[in-house]
From TrEMBL:
<keyword id="KW-0472">Membrane</keyword>
<feature type="transmembrane region" description="Helical">
    <location>
        <begin position="68"/>
        <end position="88"/>
    </location>
</feature>
<dbReference type="GO" id="GO:0005886">
    <property type="term" value="C:plasma membrane"/>
</dbReference>
<feature type="transmembrane region" description="Helical">
    <location>
        <begin position="490"/>
        <end position="511"/>
    </location>
</feature>
<dbReference type="InterPro" id="IPR005828">
    <property type="entry name" value="MFS_sugar_transport-like"/>
</dbReference>
<dbReference type="InterPro" id="IPR036259">
    <property type="entry name" value="MFS_trans_sf"/>
</dbReference>
<dbReference type="GO" id="GO:0055085">
    <property type="term" value="P:transmembrane transport"/>
</dbReference>
<dbReference type="GO" id="GO:0015798">
    <property type="term" value="P:myo-inositol transport"/>
</dbReference>
<feature type="domain" description="Major facilitator superfamily (MFS) profile">
    <location>
        <begin position="31"/>
        <end position="545"/>
    </location>
</feature>
<feature type="transmembrane region" description="Helical">
    <location>
        <begin position="186"/>
        <end position="208"/>
    </location>
</feature>
<dbReference type="InterPro" id="IPR005829">
    <property type="entry name" value="Sugar_transporter_CS"/>
</dbReference>
<keyword id="KW-0812">Transmembrane</keyword>
<feature type="transmembrane region" description="Helical">
    <location>
        <begin position="125"/>
        <end position="146"/>
    </location>
</feature>
<comment type="similarity">
    <text>Belongs to the major facilitator superfamily. Sugar transporter (TC 2.A.1.1) family.</text>
</comment>
<keyword id="KW-0813">Transport</keyword>
<feature type="transmembrane region" description="Helical">
    <location>
        <begin position="100"/>
        <end position="119"/>
    </location>
</feature>
<keyword id="KW-0769">Symport</keyword>
Length: 579
């Protein structure tokens, strides 16, 4: 309980205690990192498709021509994850956390094999759905398992290891992407390697026990107590067992059963409803502030900023992935010192500023792209873009207008002397691309040359630096600890499903939005949503730092709005909690 822990002492020692466990009680870290491989799978899939998509477009011309097909390859995994998260919530309560993770690993492995051997886009999409099912289950189960197997004082830090492994998986995916850029089958290796961590986690989880809290709810008290005695110090374990027993008995007394879950009763229960508003809201806003546009389409965004080469785009995207992983390490350090809510607020302030910068940079990029020159284009007379050749106002054409031509698609061959000088507007195909490169010119099809490209990279880096420690990890931590034990699997599944639905909407619409209204306006929309998210956090999200899981329900029952999130609560017991 909050009153039982000195906040100053907890803040000063939580991070140190977490890492001292490596020596004093490695069993806890073994549980956390084994389950956290689910986060690695989540992160790897998010990151690997961004690089693989560049080469899938080269292999399958239909994918290169149709934006909708590109978005489908990305978003069908998200669609699978929606179903996986919804199924995962039910499976967690019915069969247990460990069993759900094992099923997720099998699905992910099957998906990786199908993707690596796909002879056409259709089968590739089927493989993406299988991977999505596994990722959806793992994304909500891994933090739940870690949370239920962690002492309260370091729970935030340990659940943050799941966030670190998500971002670590993204960073690893970019390294894998770079490693296979010159290998035959490029994208097949990139996607197929994903089966290895799934197989590793399957083996590790077979050697680990079920969540002690789930076992307790199922009446398997002896098994649960044996595991808790491995997790908690001797002087704390009896109190933890007693609190857990009281929590389960209270639920049974209230409902008459510890098995049946009535969804309507769930929504009518004040503590659950308040928890769902905060938990689901955070998961939705995590996606709508635009993070997965950066992770799914990072190389594409770099190309939109004016960097033409696929390899250069991947290399620069590796920087953003590395910063994302670094931000997760920062979260592990601060989550139990600063608190969940303060970290969210700081994160969103930075995200808003970063998105404003990105919007301004892309506005300047699109409004100051190099002109198309008639003389330069005539050097490639057989390949002149038809729309440009027929235009009555050809003198006003610039690179952006050239790239928007669609009958057929056209590209911009930059001037060899200076990429910002007038260039040629030509038909977009491999022959023309090679001809342009043969004259030491850069070939652009997804973005135009820009002197502001490096500012866009700075904006992306700032976005990741601010997003990762707060909005990147905190929503998963809050959702792993905010719900009553009886409803934790179902509520966590609902929140994860909301996350993946939001993810799908963003992933499926981003490229279409950039084509319809421009990259600048797209990032501006994300910025406005981030402002709304900040207001939501200030009003609806409670602080759960340092509270044992059984005490969080009491806190929600008596919580009052506290806009001055930077001030510590004056309450000294679980009966007098504030947000």
């Amino acid at each position: 309980m909050e009153g039982g822990i000195n906040p100053e002492a907890a803040d000063a020692t939580a991070f140190r205690e977490c890492f001292s466990l490596a020596w004093t009680n490695p069993y806890i870290l073994r549980l956390a990192f084994s389950a956290g491989i689910g986060g690695l799978l989540f992160g790897y899939d998010t990151g690997v498709i961004s690089g693989a998509l560049l080469y899938i477009r080269d292999d399958f011309k239909s994918v290169d021509r149709e934006t909708v097909l590109q978005e489908s390859i990305v978003s069908m995994a998200v669609a699978g994850a929606i179903i996986g998260a919804a199924m995962g919530g039910w499976m967690n309560d019915r069969f247990g956390r460990r069993s759900t993770i094992l099923v997720a690993d099998v699905l992910f492995f099957i998906g990786a094999v199908i993707m690596a051997s796909a002879p056409n886009p259709a089968l590739l999409i089927i493989g993406r759905v299988f991977v999505g099912l596994g990722v959806g289950m793992a994304s909500m189960t891994a933090p739940l398992y870690i949370s239920e197997a962690s002492p309260a004082k370091i729970r935030g830090a340990l659940v943050s290891t799941n966030g670190f492994l998500i971002t670590g998986g993204q960073f690893l995916s970019y390294l894998i992407n770079l490693a296979f850029t010159k290998a035959p089958g490029t994208w097949r290796w990139m996607l197929g390697v994903a089966g290895i961590p799934a197989l590793l986690q399957f083996i590790l989880m077979l050697l680990l026990p079920e969540s002690p809290r789930w076992l307790f709810r199922k009446g398997r008290e002896e098994e649960a107590e044996a595991i808790l005695r491995k997790i908690y110090p001797t002087n704390e374990v009896d109190r933890e067992i007693r609190d857990l027993k009281e929590s389960v008995e209270s639920e049974i007394q209230e409902t008459g059963s510890s098995e049946k879950i009535n969804i309507m009763k769930l929504l009518k229960t004040k503590t659950v409803r308040r928890g769902l508003v905060a938990g689901v809201g955070l998961q939705v806003f995590q996606q709508f502030v635009g993070i997965n546009t950066v992770m799914y389409y990072s190389p594409t965004i770099v190309q939109l900023a004016g960097f033409a080469s696929n390899r250069t785009a991947l290399l620069l995207s590796l920087v953003t992935a590395g910063l994302n992983a670094l931000g997760s390490i920062v979260s592990i350090y601060f989550i139990d010192r600063t608190g969940r809510k303060k970290l969210l607020v700081i994160s969103l302030f930075g995200v808003i500023i970063s998105l404003g910068l990105l919007s301004a940079v892309f506005h300047e990029t699109s409004s100051h792209s190099p002109l198309v020159n008639q003389a330069a284009t005539s050097q490639f007379a057989n390949y002149t873009c038809p729309d440009y050749g027929l235009a009555t106002n050809a003198a006003s054409w610039d690179c952006m207008k050239c790239l928007k031509a669609s009958s057929p698609d056209c590209g911009f061959c930059a001037s060899p002397a200076d990429k910002m000088s007038p260039g040629a507007c030509l038909i977009s195909n491999d022959t023309v691309k090679d001809t342009c490169h043969a004259e030491d010119r850069l070939w652009y099809t997804r973005g135009c040359p820009s002197k502001y490209g490096w500012l866009a990279l700075i904006g992306l880096a700032l976005y990741i630096i601010f997003f990762s420690p707060g909005m990147g990890t905190v929503p998963w931590i809050v959702n792993s600890e905010i719900y009553p034990l009886r409803f934790r699997g179902v509520c966590g599944g609902m929140a994860a499903t909301a996350n993946w639905i939001s993810n799908l909407i963003v992933a499926q619409s981003f490229l279409s939005l950039t084509q319809a209204i421009g990259t600048s306006w797209t990032f501006l929309i994300f910025g406005v949503i981030s402002v709304v998210a900040l207001i939501f956090v200030l009003i609806y999200v409670p602080e759960t730092k340092g509270l044992p899981i059984e005490e969080v329900e009491k806190m929600l029952e008596h919580r009052a709005l506290q806009f001055k999130f930077w001030e510590k609560s004056s309450s000294t017991s679980g009966k007098d909690q504030a947000v």
